[in-house]
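Run log, item B.
One chain of 707 residues. Sequence copied directly from the ordering sheet:
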Amino acid sequence: MSDRPRLLPLLGPAGHGGRSAMTCLYRCGNACDHPVPNESENPYFGDVVNAEVSRRGVVRAGAVGALVLGVAGALGSTAPALAAPGDGGVPALPEIDDFTAKRPPSNNGALTFKPIPPNKLDTLVVPNGYDHAVVIRWGDPVVPGAPALDVHNQTAARQSKQFGYNNDFVGVLPLDRKGRRALLVVNHEYTNEELMFPGFTSLDALTPEQVRAAIAAHGLSVVELERVGDTGAWEPVRDGRRPYNRRITALETRFDVTGPAAGSAWLKTKADPKGRTVVGTLNNCSGGITPWGTVLSGEENFNQYFVGGDGAPAELKPKLARYGIPTDVRYPSGSRRWDRVDERFDLAKNPNEAHRFGWVVEVDPFDPDSRPRKHTAMGRLKHEGANVIIAKDGHVVAYMGDDERFDYLYKFVSENKYMKGDSAAARRHNLTLLESGTLYVAKLDYTSADEIDGSGKLPADGAFNGRGRWIKLVRGNTSYVPGMTAADVLTFTRLAGDAVGATKMDRPEDVEPSKVTGKIYVALTNNTNRGVGSNPKPDEANPRNANKHGQILEVVEDRGDHTSETFAWSLPIVCGDPTDPSTFFAGYDKSKVSPISCPDNVAFDGAGNLWISTDGNALGSNDGLFATAVEGPERGHLKQFLTVPLGAETCGPFISEDNRSVFVAVQHPGEISGATLENPASNWPDGDFAKPGVVVTWRLDGGAVGS
């Protein structure tokens, strides 16, 4: 008789969209069951048209070409070898060319793989001609000498040395020119104690040590990798010093606070009266890699970790509520009760502690002794992540989404310019670029507003499209929002967006610019509240009522200038079952495309193809990874590349700089209501109980993935 745990039947109450109720509880604190935080009365139809917004249409190809030339000029070309930490100087780092996938030498990057069909298998499925392997999983040792995972003896000290739980963002940064070594940097978004601790009965029944272990399972991991032979496979380095390996946790890692809100009254606490040092990072979702070789990590659903909102000062309660923190009860439904081990999570005692989360975090993986930083200049919201590109004039531009129903799309432009080269002076300078700049929020207008009825029917002009502008919120220490200081705007950025009438979007998550075309792509995951009851009606950028499946937004900055304050936008993909008339795939023959639901993260290969991972597939099959061309005759020909196991979400993704490896994070496998560690709904990846992990996929013939 097998001693494997029995797989749980796929039963239990449904969550929202394709998520289970268990995922809704642990990932975002049942956000969809709470009132929509955005109660502002921002306009939504043609009345958002502003006289300053031009209606000249999309940027012409010549302007895009100029953009590509401008970007190429700013990037640099060669990469020096890296100095090891502790050599007495700042490590010499590869420039962005080595972090971004390069154009494949053949096939012009055409996507030639045969798409896999939707399925409900408890395994990872890849196309014919490909293979995959688990790189690292929850509980694997990270710091040299760390113990192996023992779920019956898990402590905070052990977890602080092991790979954390529920991996999301994946970044891989090369360590040498030959492509043999690299650093894997991964976010750990949230924990599910029901699937982590044997004998679980309730969150209240967890021991204090188990609570501390769960806190330690949040944060980030940095792990040195080595290539397996001459393949696209990678595995952790298991011997030697591994000086870069590092765990950053919510339990004890200290973060410096930078920018105009650092030291403000909003960030000061009893434990930190100066308001400049924060312990931990929470609910880190997606992220990005900077041209100077650091990782940006977005703090997302941080609200769910705090209690005592009912005891917060009365004048603060509206601000807390705007960020999804209940202010009418001490313990919101599903509270993790971390206040039992650390009073900073009790807002009745520490009302400003919540303001110290919701930022973009910058981590330097090449300097393991460095302290991570939280950049207040980039605003405070439920950051899915942040991705940067160098503008033609050398300024650094970061694009960001606020992952909430009816929240906003943002852009940050650095005050200073990127300095090319690998000198210590250049690196010191570039490490300051996100500490000061201009923060904008997006406001859209539409070409076919009167035709939008919530059905998703394509307008008569054959496109969902329009113009838009970036509304300036703050520049340095100067606020452009009446009645709010710069510190106010940056600490309560959602309220600033409300005040200037930003466009309410359907959960803007990952936002990433293409290094090939310069166009920006936004994953709008879903919004089942759109057009329902008194909630905002559909508009051309969010064209469906009760939107279960989401859409992809494409933004083209005017003149190909990422510092521009005006842009054109369109929806190349409106997700769902291709047989559904409300779906759209850039005009491509829908009988030839794969069904897709709930886009979450986006990435690009070297040819500029768009890769899309999903979260909460509302079509009933497992989540997966998809790819499509965004230029030329194959634009909109979406193909499914892989699926993840039962109950899991596809996170990442990341295509290596040589195009030979696709990394994805398999988050929350087996997270299905009723599952436990002893009675799992999935036994991926080891055949016993479910463990989140990072997977790499590669072509068996060694060629470029996808093509």
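Observations after the first pass:
- Confidence is low (pLDDT under 50) at residues 8-15, 44-92.
- DSSP finds eight helices and 32 strands in the chain.
Flagged for discussion on Thursday.
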